[in-house]
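Recall the central idea of this unit: under ordinary conditions, the amino acid sequence of a chain determines the structure it adopts. In this exercise we apply that idea directly, starting from the sequence alone.
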Amino acid sequence: MAAEHVRTRAGVRSWPGSPDAHAALAEYLDALGPDPLRAATALAGDFLDFTGADLSGVELSSAGLFGAGLEGVRFVGANLNRATLNGARLSGADLTSAVLFRADAPECEARGAAFRRADLVHADLGRADLREADLREADLTAAYLADADLRDADLRGCSFGPVERPASLRLSRLGGCRVAGASGHVAGPVDVGAGEPHFLDGTDLAAWFRSLDAPDVRVASSG
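Accordingly, the structure predicted from this sequence is:
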């Protein structure tokens, strides 16, 4: 059985250095309380600076983190289900095994962030900067990655989802990606160029995945 998520101040491993972010997090956890049956509340962290924090395992469902400073923050195993992360600065953040089901994170800056084994089902990462991000073994079922920059990202072993719920990679940039062992269905076209744009779709895109040891990736019909 999975461990319960942290719901109290005592469970926070490291607090943000910003007094405003510290106060917002403390107020949220006090309102949340240890009882999972207690009425829901949400972290009000839009535009706040949470750098320096270790929020591993913390219950952060529906957190408001629009435009927040989250560089290097640890969210290992945290619950960010339906969190708002539009434009958040996540470069170098560690979201290993985090739950980001239906998280809203378009245009977030997540270069070099770790999403290994993260639940990104139905997450919106459209136009996100995911260069050099670690997405190994992540669940990308029905994830929206249109126009995202995934150059040099590590997608080995990730799951793109079943045919009825493919990951949307439309117009995303995958040059230099590692995709060996990835599986599931994607929707293109995708730019695989290392320098100049080189868009592939359909059988050509499927062949590109096969050439990189990902024969189990299928390309959804654009028709």
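The longest helix spans residues 19-32.
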